[in-house]
Every structure is written in C-alpha cells, then in structure tokens.
Design brief:
alpha/beta, two-stranded parallel ribbon, 234 residues, 9 strands, seven-stranded parallel β-sheet, globular
Length: 234
C-alpha cells in the first residue's frame, strides 16, 4: 500500500472529488482527517464508505478563517501526532461577468474561497510537517491557469494565485522535506465514461494522481503544476 498508516488531511472532503479521494486513500491504508464546513456530510461519507472512528475523524472548519484552519490541524495532530499529507480540494467556480462589471463582493468572495483557504490551511500544516521532517501538500487548481476562460476574472486570478502559493511553499520548504504541488484539472465528473466530452476528468483519476504524489514516487516532485485533463486532450 502506497500510504499505509500515513495521516492524510482532506480539506473539502464532502464533495464528489472528496468522496473519490477519501475512498482511494482509505483503500491504500491511510488514516484520514476529513474537513468540511458542515459535519453532517462528513458523517454521511463515513457511513457510505464504512469508515470507523479508528480510521478517520471529522472536523468542521471554515478554512477562510485562520483560527478554524489551525484548530482543525491541531485536532488531527492531537489524535495521531502528525500530518503526513494535506490534500486541499476546497474551491468554487463563478463566471459570466466581465471585469468592469464585477462587484467587490464577487471578487473578494472568489479570492477568499479559492486562495485564502489554501493559504490558511497550508500555513497551519507546515509547522507540524517541519517538526516531523517533511510532508506532502497538494492543492487543486484549474485548467483555467493555462487556458483562460472569458468572463471569469476572479476565478482565473484565484487559481493562478494558487499556483504561485504552491510554488512558494515548494521553494521555501523543500529543503525541510516538504513537497508542494498543484493539480490543474479540466471539468471534474463523478465517473469515467467513453461518452464524456473530451475535456472532462473523472474524480477517481484525480485521486490516483494525488496518491502518486503522496507515495514514494512523489518525493522527486516539488513545485509542479500538473495538468490532468482526462487523457484525451493536451
């Protein structure tokens, strides 16, 4: 098993991608800290996957709030003494309005959800990773970093900022054993299908890429922005 007995924090675990990632890492023997803004979806996820309290814990946290991000990390380190991997799946999409017509509220909300959350949870998890000699940090970005969509400036900027944040972590902490990478998916779908549009990627496939980055092979990968489009386009 690639991550047997590793402690894996999954932020944004309650969605479609979160379930696929939770299942994949459960099957590979990891112990899981599941984070979301509401506890009920996390408990339902544990029930669906048959996870026991020995295998996973649920943490309610709004990662746009630094204190809650720190509390969530402490809950996991208090339970298991370490955090080996952070998988940050938190994010949202929004578009349809060009820059000159954007409200301040829309701009700040997108940056808060897609970038501030990543900053807060990364900042919280780095000290215990340094203390234990290293760890893996993986953020979910977007293909929009490389192929900008029109009418979605806040989304484009927030995801580009996420790449810069990830690479900054890689530069600052690579010598201390931390490997930070960002995955750039196209549209994420629940299941792989031959009938899907050419630019869609199954949640399970993304989970397998994250697993590779958290396993022994991932030791050699740091500061990478990895496109994952489903294998049909480049």
């Amino acid at each position: 098993m690639m991550v047997a007995e590793q402690i894996v924090l999954i932020a944004g675990a309650s969605g479609t991608l979160g379930e696929a990632v939770t299942r994949t890492f459960r099957d590979e023997g990891a112990r899981l800290g599941l984070l979301a803004r509401r506890l009920e979806p996390l408990r339902a996820l544990m029930d669906r996957l048959g996870l026991t309290d020995d295998e996973a814990i649920c943490c309610q946290a709004d990662l746009s709030r630094p204190q809650e991000a720190g509390d969530a990390v402490r809950a996991i380190t208090d339970r298991w003494g370490r955090v080996d991997c952070l998988l940050n799946l938190v994010g949202t999409w929004g578009g349809g309005v060009k820059l000159a017509d954007l409200s301040d509220e829309v701009w700040h909300a997108m940056i808060a959800t897609n970038l501030h959350t990543a900053f807060n949870i990364s900042r919280a998890v780095i000290p215990p990773m340094i203390a234990q000699g290293g760890g893996r940090i993986i953020h979910i970005g977007s293909r929009a970093v490389e192929r900008l969509g029109g009418g979605q400036a806040p989304y484009n900027v927030s995801k580009a900022g996420l790449v810069a944040l990830t690479r900054s972590i890689a530069v600052d902490y690579g010598a201390q054993g931390i490997r930070a990478n960002v995955i750039l998916p196209s549209t994420i779908v629940a299941e792989r299908s031959a009938d899907e549009a050419r630019d869609r990627v199954a949640a399970e496939d993304l989970a397998r890429v994250m697993l590779m980055l958290c396993g022994p092979t991932g030791e050699a990968v740091n500061g990478a922005a990895i496109p994952v489009y489903g294998g049909r386009v480049i």
